[in-house]
Design goal:
Blueprint lengths: L10 H15 L9 H8 L3 H17 L1 H11 L2 H24 L4 H30 L7 H26 L4 H22 L34 E4 L50 E4 L8 H4 L2 H33 L7 H35 L8 H18 L6 H27 L4 H8 L2 H25 L5 H7 L16 H35 L7
Antiparallel strand pairs: 1-2
């Protein structure tokens, strides 16, 4: 007799959850605020600094499909070892160039490569943490547990920046050393404690409202054809009748291709349109959607989520990459007593606020998603509306800020929105496309921020540079007195909100478009659920 899987609140399962949170916590350090100091020491322009930051983001997002496929098929070992090596090499390489202080073309290329490696490592760790957690906890708590793991990713920048600021205040070189060692070691720890824990048996009623779950035996997630559940039943009662008695399920049985029925048109469609009949028993088939590979790329749902994520995450990436420059621009405007230390404090305050709210957003949206699904009986896709609204409000808030002392409010809203986006989307990916190929599907969707992120960040950088250039020509302006008073960089913009506000009008419009698409996503998902009630195929013997 096979041993029973550990209970849901058992020590092995909780240890895996804790290990996944630690790995995730070490995977989101691309947003740690050292770019302004690096740029000032190496005399980099805002555009060059944005290119370096985008290289890290590209490492995260471009590697998604590859890491996803490795995690789905090979498990966590290879990604975690690779993450350990890339984090060490990446951050220690950036530290070496910073200490050397040579702002050459070669050093710029190496910085881009090292930043790319840190992003590569971050995606590897996050893919392992998210995949392991999603497959180790039941569907009813999946939004909450994956949100908890993803919150570690959101808290990462604040966590490591705080450690460095307390232990080595004002020392950017020490910060980069902390990042190199502090992120690599948890990846080795993850090799020991992060592993998929089989789920115990759990009975649920049959019904579309509960996600089309039949009586099932939770085991390791199969990666092939849908599992087949067979039970004896002399009744012709509809499969969707909530009063139907729940029969005990047998073990998984892989059906022959000729008998397989998949209830997934788009996501819920039938492979056969005819009902197979035999005597004295009924056979019901469902193991959730299983859309991946070519089928994923042909799905309109995929492109809907892709566009929403591109618009919203691009807005978030732009702000995160440039929040230090925004705070410095606001602090510098009209300030004849510019203090570099004070400017750095305002910058650090924004990043800390952003990171904490990013963390909170990922946890809260997971709880909200489960509440929407199981209490309100609505699709989780409606959570996109909440996220998009937060993004719109955050952009309008940044536009209205004229004083650096009030910037934290806009930063908090943006952090909540950004964290919520990445906290709910993986769960929606599971709902729409299935769990078996979660990491691979999420990897393809992770390409979406490259579109908006690159476009909006480069736009923002060029906008700042154009204002800085205009300032350089005004040699008789009072601004020149500020520069002589100790401003650290020639590329600083002194116009306050005018340095960047035109970029925010673009992102605010993009978020409004995403809000409209989010409403459509929720309506579309609800309609498909209603359609599934009419199209469910059940097999009965006469």
């Amino acid at each position: 007799m096979e041993p029973q899987p550990p209970a849901l609140l058992s020590a092995p399962r909780m240890l895996t959850l804790i290990g996944s949170v630690l790995v995730s916590l070490s995977s989101g350090t691309n947003y740690v605020p050292y770019a302004p100091q690096l740029g000032a020491r190496l005399l980099l322009s805002h555009t060059q600094s944005n290119v370096i930051g985008l290289a890290g983001n590209m490492g995260v997002y471009l590697s998604g499909p590859a890491w996803g496929r490795v995690v789905d098929s090979k498990g966590p070992r290879i990604p975690l070892i690779s993450a350990f090596a890339c984090l060490l090499i990446g951050y220690l390489g950036i530290r070496h160039i910073y200490d050397d202080g040579a702002g050459t073309v070669i050093s710029l290329v190496v910085l881009i490569a090292c930043s790319f490696m840190t992003g590569l490592a971050g995606n590897a760790g996050l893919a392992v943490a998210m995949n392991t957690t999603a497959k180790s906890f039941p569907e009813t708590s999946r939004g909450t547990t994956t949100g908890l793991v993803l919150s570690g990713f959101g808290l990462s920048a604040f966590f490591f920046a705080t450690i460095a600021s307390v232990a080595f205040p004002g020392d950017t070189s020490a910060l980069l050393l902390v990042l190199g060692l502090g992120t690599a070691i948890p990846m080795l720890l993850g090799l020991v404690i992060v592993r998929q824990i089989p789920l115990p048996r759990a009975s649920t009623t049959l019904g579309i409202e509960e996600g089309l779950h039949g009586p099932e035996e939770y085991q390791s997630i199969p990666s092939g054809d849908a599992a087949l559940f067979i039970h004896e039943n002399d009744s012709h009662t509809s499969l969707l009748d909530p009063t139907e008695n729940v029969h005990e399920a047998s073990s998984y049985h892989v059906p022959e291709p000729s008998t397989v029925l998949e209830l997934v048109p788009g996501r819920i469609a039938s492979r056969e349109s005819s009902v197979r009949r035999s005597r004295s028993r009924a056979t019901s088939v469902y193991d959730g959607p299983n859309v991946y590979g070519k089928q994923l790329w042909l799905s309109s749902d995929f492109y809907l989520v892709f566009v929403i994520m591109s618009l919203l995450s691009g807005t978030g990436i732009m702000y995160i990459n440039n929040v230090g420059s925004i705070s410095q621009a606001l602090y510098a405007k009209g300030n004849h007593n510019y203090d570099e230390v004070e400017a750095s404090r305002w910058q650090a305050a924004q990043v800390s606020t952003l990171s904490v709210c990013n963390f909170a957003g990922r946890i809260l949206i997971g709880l909200i998603g489960d509440l929407v699904r199981y209490r309100l009986h609505l699709p989780r896709a409606y959570c996109f509306c909440i996220v998009s609204t937060l993004f719109v409000v955050s952009q309008l808030s940044v536009i209205s800020v004229n004083d650096v002392a009030h910037l934290w409010k806009a930063t908090a809203l943006l952090g909540l929105a950004y964290g919520s986006l990445f906290g709910i989307t993986p769960t929606i990916v599971i709902d729409w496309f299935g769990l078996s190929h979660l990491s691979e599907n999420w990897g393809y969707l992770s390409l979406s921020p490259l579109v908006g992120g690159n476009l909006f960040s480069l736009m923002f950088g060029r906008n700042l540079d154009s204002h800085a250039s205009n300032d350089d020509s005004e040699t008789h302006s009072p601004l020149s007195l500020i520069r002589r008073g100790g401003l650290p960089s020639e590329h600083q913009c002194f116009d306050g909100r005018d340095c960047y506000v035109s970029s925010l009008y673009v992102t605010a419009t993009a978020c409004l478009i995403a809000l409209g698409l989010s409403v459509w996503a929720g309506i579309r998902d609800q309609r498909k659920t209603a359609e599934a009630k009419r199209e469910v195929i059940w097999v009965a013997e006469e």
